[in-house]
């Protein structure tokens, strides 16, 4: 028998005799210790039911319903530390799943861009590919909107964009967005992610990456926008940079192929 | 503010007072099981941090009542040396003196909103909120001057 199994009945009995915050806090501390000792939830449940059964058999004075309710408060307190730990586990698991999904999408997009770059003689086809890049970039970084611009300043123009389907606010925003200054700011820091100042209240975070050819010529930019301030993480920056590099390679190869 | 409850945290015994006040406020606001326990747990973790790492601080609890939801704002404040690396402190296992290492991240996960402000020698302030939805029936009862059903249950 572990220390937990020995301590649980006393902890439960103390609260049943004198219900209050002090005994509940003691129950919580017992739960914390149980987590630290690696006690399982099933062991906690078994200890609780054993202790409660004994109390119900011994205590003839209290109505069983009241006794079960009071004992339930102790049970909840002991489980609180387990709950806290489980939330942490679920958070890590969800994060790992998201990263795996992100990795798969980047890999698929990499293959797609590599495969299609040699078969893109038509400018419409390139636009289609950059639309896909805009969509994937938005999904991979959890941005609210993305825009790909193409061309040299000052003639650079948006060629592809993505916003949540049916979100008229973001759709209108990217349609009327003037990216001239943002493009210039991104090109100044060509090769590295930069954050041009957001000038509109809709945009709390803005991540811009240049599409740079192997020669160093800037072909365009990828802009990512989100309403939430600080929405983009270093991982998002790395993903945006990778997508920008792959897109630049595709555009460059398509240009060579078209000549 | 009106309705605020303040508890000074200087020793382990103050954890009990802070937890009791939080639980009572949560129950007055109509929170149901297990939410009062989760709020008390988050407070326990942060109050324990104050006792272990700083020595003294305070916890302020404030009821929040809006049209469609009500909640508890918990402000945990100390004037200690601050947390040098907040991102690291929000990871499991940070600076745990033999504990679970779940203090800050654990509290964050139990509450709905969590903000932290800290700086060198300017102390640390954590703001946490837990919300519950106020349904149409509850709002109707309130308009008619009756307490929420959950409060009636508590009184019984």
Describe the secondary-structure layout:
The complex is a heterodimer of chains A (259) and B (156).
Chain A: H1 3-17, H2 21-37, H3 41-58, H4 64-116, H5 123-141, E1 145-150, E2 157-162, H6 168-176, H7 180-188, E3 205-212, E4 218-226, H8 234-258
Helix pairs in contact in A: 1-2, 1-3, 1-4, 2-4, 3-4, 4-5, 4-8, 5-8
Chain B: E1 5-9, H1 12-28, H2 35-54, E2 57-65, E3 69-78, H3 86-89, H4 103-110, E4 113-118, E5 124-133, H5 136-143, H6 149-155
Antiparallel strand pairs in B: 1-2, 2-3, 3-5, 4-5
Helix pairs in contact in B: 1-2, 2-4
Mean pLDDT of chain B: 87
**Head-to-tail CA distance between termini of chain A:** 80 Å
In total, the number of strands of chain B is: 5
Distance between the termini of chain B: 30 Å
Strand content of chain A: 5-15%
Please give the count of helices of chain A. Answer: 8
What does this protein look like?
The complex is a heterodimer of chains A (259) and B (156). Chain A has helices at 3-17, 21-37, 41-58, 64-116, 123-141, 168-176, 180-188, 234-258, and strands at 145-150, 157-162, 205-212, 218-226. With 259 residues, chain A is an alpha+beta fold. In chain A, strands 2-1-4-3 form a 4-stranded antiparallel β-sheet, sandwiched between helices. In chain A, a hairpin with a 5-residue loop joins β3 and β4. In chain A, α1 packs across α4 (64-116). The longest helix of chain A has 53 residues, at 64-116. Chain B is an alpha+beta fold and 156 residues long. Chain B is elongated, with a radius of gyration of 16 Å. The mean pLDDT of chain B is 87.
Summarize the structure.
Chain A is an alpha+beta fold and 259 residues long. Helix content of chain A is 64%, strand content 11%.
Key attributes of the depicted protein:
heterodimer, A: alpha+beta, four-stranded antiparallel β-sheet, elongated, B: about 160 residues, alpha+beta
């Amino acid at each position: 028998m572990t220390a937990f199994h020995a301590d649980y009945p006393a902890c439960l009995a103390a609260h049943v005799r004198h219900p209050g915050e002090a005994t509940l806090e003691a129950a919580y501390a017992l739960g914390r210790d149980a987590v630290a000792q690696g006690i399982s939830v099933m062991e906690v449940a078994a200890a609780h039911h054993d202790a409660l059964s004994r109390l119900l058999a011994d205590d003839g004075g209290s109505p069983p319903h009241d006794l079960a309710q009071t004992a339930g408060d102790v049970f909840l307190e002991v489980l609180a530390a387990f709950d806290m730990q489980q939330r942490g586990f679920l958070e890590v698991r969800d994060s790992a799943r998201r990263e795996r999904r992100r990795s798969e999408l980047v890999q698929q997009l990499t293959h797609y861009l590599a495969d299609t770059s040699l078969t893109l003689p038509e400018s419409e086809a390139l636009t289609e590919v950059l639309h896909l890049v805009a969509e994937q970039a938005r999904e991979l970084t959890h941005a609210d909107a993305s825009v790909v611009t193409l061309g040299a300043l000052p003639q650079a123009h948006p060629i592809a964009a993505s916003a949540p389907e049916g979100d008229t606010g973001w759709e209108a925003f990217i349609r009327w967005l003037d990216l001239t200054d943002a493009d210039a700011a991104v090109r100044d820091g060509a090769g590295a992610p930069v954050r041009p100042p957001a000038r509109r209240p809709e945009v709390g975070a803005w991540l811009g990456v240049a599409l740079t050819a192997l020669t160093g010529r800037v072909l365009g930019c990828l802009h990512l926008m989100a309403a939430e301030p600080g929405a983009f993480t270093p991982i998002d920056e790395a993903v945006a940079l990778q997508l920008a590099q792959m897109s630049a390679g595709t555009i460059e190869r398509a240009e060579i192929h078209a000549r | 503010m009106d309705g605020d409850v303040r508890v000074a945290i200087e020793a382990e015994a103050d954890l009990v007072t802070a937890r009791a006040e939080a639980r009572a406020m949560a129950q007055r606001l109509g929170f149901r099981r297990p939410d009062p326990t989760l709020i008390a747990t988050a407070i326990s973790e942060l109050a324990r941090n104050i006792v272990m790492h700083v020595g003294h601080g305070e916890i302020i609890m404030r009821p929040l009542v809006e049209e469609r939801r009500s909640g508890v704002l918990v402000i945990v404040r100390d004037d200690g040396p601050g947390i040098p690396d907040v991102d690291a402190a929000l990871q499991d296992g940070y600076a745990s003196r033999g504990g679970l290492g779940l203090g800050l991240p654990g509290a964050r996960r139990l509450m709905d909103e969590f903000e932290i402000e800290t700086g060198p020698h300017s102390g640390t302030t954590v703001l946490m909120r837990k919300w519950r939805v106020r349904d149409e029936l509850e709002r109707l009862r309130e308009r008619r001057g009756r307490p929420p059903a959950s409060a009636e249950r508590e009184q019984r």
